[in-house]
């Protein structure tokens, strides 16, 4: 075993009480995180244009090179003046308007007490001024700004230099998934390109003699392959390069050839189908013959059968392994297991090592029954009643009902040790973020 990577057998050997027939969701995630831990440390960086940065992972801490804003400026259109000009005994203030400035302009004369400047949003505050009153509260009479002094406080509507970011301070941390708002923040520092983690390469294929691609004739007893399209759509939203290896028939030799080929070209492989205990389900046994695998019957619904393992890149110049996720064949189970297991694995391998699903708690609209000893992920919808948000499980929770996943807003998490939930009881909810 390479010093750079941990095998599943090695990881599991460090666990106490491990039972592959009853492994919990949390235990499975811990093993996956151990398995993917060092991949991010070996991933190189690349330079990208700022406009191409959304969705990528920041490689180094981003240090502010300037103060933001670079100077005190007006937070809105109005009149800038020195607060000392106000007469505390007189509610009505009258200030002589000396000039008008817009963003990018500077005052051309010294501003005295009793004077003010017409100022636009973003314009640099004159050195003598510390307060801005919005134009809506001012009336102009013969070049004099008149307003009620009771409605303004010292420092109102002034953005101070560096109040957003200070020179030399960390703006964003390494490993951050760059959002559109982050792009704006980086641009405000004058930075046009940044270092990000290089994209991983992820390959996928479906298994099954019964599968046909959309557009082909659907023979009797066959079905269209929806899983590969679902997996592709979810992968395209992630910072990875994607390879489609098509459909592989239920033949161990073909499957072995396909897995070896995929492993030589990718960092992570996702397959669907062939991981249960049927006579034609070969994924597990082929994975064991060419790599390192532990077959998990995870205590969850949907998605109980799932294989996770590694395949050595024997024909690659780079020493390493490709991680393999053998997902179930049922369409809903594919999406749930991808969302719960594959997504965080990819994010962490890409450098986003702090990634975790954002859960919120919402009350159930109806009571729910479940079996103790497994985690259930039920498709749900958000409903509003009397200005309160509730979550309601969909009635049909079958693993093959793909339409229910399309219509759902979220996954409702029914915990491993729980049995029944009453209406109004809070549950953890995973709101879909576009991967569904």
Low-confidence parts? none
How many separate structural domains?
Answer: 4
Structural class: alpha+beta
Largest sheet: 6 strands, mixed
Assembly context of the chains: single chain
Spatial order of the strands forming the largest sheet: 7-4-6-5-9-8
List how many beta strands DSSP finds: 28
| The CATH class of the largest domain | Alpha Beta
The number of helices is 9
Please give a handful of descriptors for the protein shown:
about 425 residues, Molybdopterin biosynthesis moeA protein, domain 3, Molybdopterin biosynthesis moea protein, domain 2, 28 strands, 4 domains, alpha+beta, single chain, six-stranded mixed β-sheet, elongated, Molybdenum Cofactor Biosythetic Enzyme, Chain A
SSE diagram, text form:
Elements: H1 8-13, H2 25-36, H3 39-42, E1 45-49, E2 62-63, E3 73-74, E4 78-81, E5 92-101, E6 115-119, E7 131-134, E8 139-141, E9 144-148, E10 158-159, E11 170-172, H4 180-188, E12 193-197, E13 200-207, E14 211-212, E15 223-224, H5 227-235, E16 240-248, H6 252-265, E17 268-272, H7 283-290, E18 291-297, E19 300-301, E20 305-312, E21 321-327, H8 331-349, E22 359-363, E23 368-369, E24 375-385, E25 388-393, H9 402-407, E26 410-414, E27 420-421, E28 426-431
Parallel strand pairs: 5-6, 13-16, 13-17, 14-15, 17-21, 19-24
Antiparallel strand pairs: 1-12, 2-11, 3-10, 4-6, 4-7, 5-9, 8-9, 18-20, 20-21, 22-28, 23-27, 24-25, 24-26, 26-28
Helix pairs in contact: 2-8, 6-7
Summarize the structure in words.
This protein is of the alpha+beta class. It has four domains: 8-44 and 199-349, MoaB/Mog-like domain (Molybdenum Cofactor Biosythetic Enzyme, Chain A); 46-70 and 161-197, Molybdopterin biosynthesis moea protein, domain 2, CATH 3.90.105; 73-159, Molybdopterin biosynthesis moeA protein, domain 3, CATH 2.170.190.11; 359-431, MoeA, C-terminal, domain IV (Beta-clip). Helix content is 20%, strand content 31%. Strands 7-4-6-5-9-8 form a six-stranded mixed β-sheet, with no helix packed on it. Strands 16-13-17-21-20-18 form a six-stranded mixed β-sheet, with helices on both faces. Strands 19, 22, 24, 25, 26 and 28 form a six-stranded mixed β-sheet that branches. Strand 24 (375-385) and strand 25 (388-393) form a beta hairpin. Helix 2 (25-36) runs parallel beside helix 8 (331-349) and helix 6 crosses helix 7. The longest helix has 19 residues, at 331-349.
């Amino acid at each position: 075993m390479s010093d750079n990577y941990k095998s599943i057998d090695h990881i599991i050997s460090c666990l106490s009480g491990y039972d592959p027939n009853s492994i919990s969701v949390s235990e499975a995630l811990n093993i996956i995180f151990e398995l993917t831990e060092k991949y991010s440390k070996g991933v190189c960086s690349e330079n990208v244009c700022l406009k191409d940065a959304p969705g990528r992972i920041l490689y180094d801490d981003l240090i502010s090179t300037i103060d933001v804003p670079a100077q005190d400026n007006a937070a809105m259109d109005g009149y800038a003046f020195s607060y000392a000009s106000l007469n505390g005994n007189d509610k009505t203030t009258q200030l002589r308007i000396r000039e008008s400035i817009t963003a990018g302009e500077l005052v051309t004369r010294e501003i005295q007490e009793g004077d003010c400047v017409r100022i636009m949003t973003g314009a640099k505050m004159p050195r003598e001024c510390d307060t801005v009153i919005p134009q809506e509260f001012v009336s102009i009479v013969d070049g004099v700004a008149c307003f009620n002094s009771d409605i303004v406080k010292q420092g109102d509507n002034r953005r101070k230099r560096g109040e957003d970011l200070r020179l030399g301070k960390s703006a964003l941390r390494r490993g951050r998934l760059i959002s559109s708002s982050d792009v704006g923040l980086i641009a405000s520092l004058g930075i046009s390109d940044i270092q990000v983690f290089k994209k991983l390469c992820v390959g996928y294929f479906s298994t099954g003699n019964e599968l046909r691609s959309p557009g082909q004739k659907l023979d009797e007893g066959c079905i269209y392959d929806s899983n590969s399209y679902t997996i592709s759509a979810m992968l395209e939203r992630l910072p990875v390069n994607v390879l489609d290896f098509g459909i592989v028939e239920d033949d161990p030799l073909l499957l072995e050839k396909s897995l070896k080929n995929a492993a030589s070209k990718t960092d992570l492989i996702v397959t669907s189908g062939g991981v249960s205990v049927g006579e034609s389900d070969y994924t597990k046994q082929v994975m064991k013959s060419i790599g390192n695998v532990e077959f998990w019957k995870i205590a969850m619904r949907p998605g109980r059968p799932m294989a996770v393992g590694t395949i050595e890149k024997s024909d690659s110049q780079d020493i390493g392994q490709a991680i393999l996720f053998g997902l179930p064949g049922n369409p809903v189970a594919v999406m749930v297991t991808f969302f719960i297991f594959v997504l965080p694995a990819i994010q962490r391998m890409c450098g986003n090592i702090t990634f975790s699903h954002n859960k919120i708690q919402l009350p159930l609209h109806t009571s729910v029954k479940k079996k103790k000893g497994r985690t259930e992920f039920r498709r749900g919808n958000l409903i509003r009643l009397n200005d309160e948000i509730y979550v309601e499980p969909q009635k049909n929770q079958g693993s093959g009902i793909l339409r229910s996943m399309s219509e759902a807003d979220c996954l409702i998490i029914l915990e491993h040790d729980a049995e029944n939930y009453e209406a109004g009881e809070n549950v953890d909810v995973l709101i879909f973020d576009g991967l569904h």
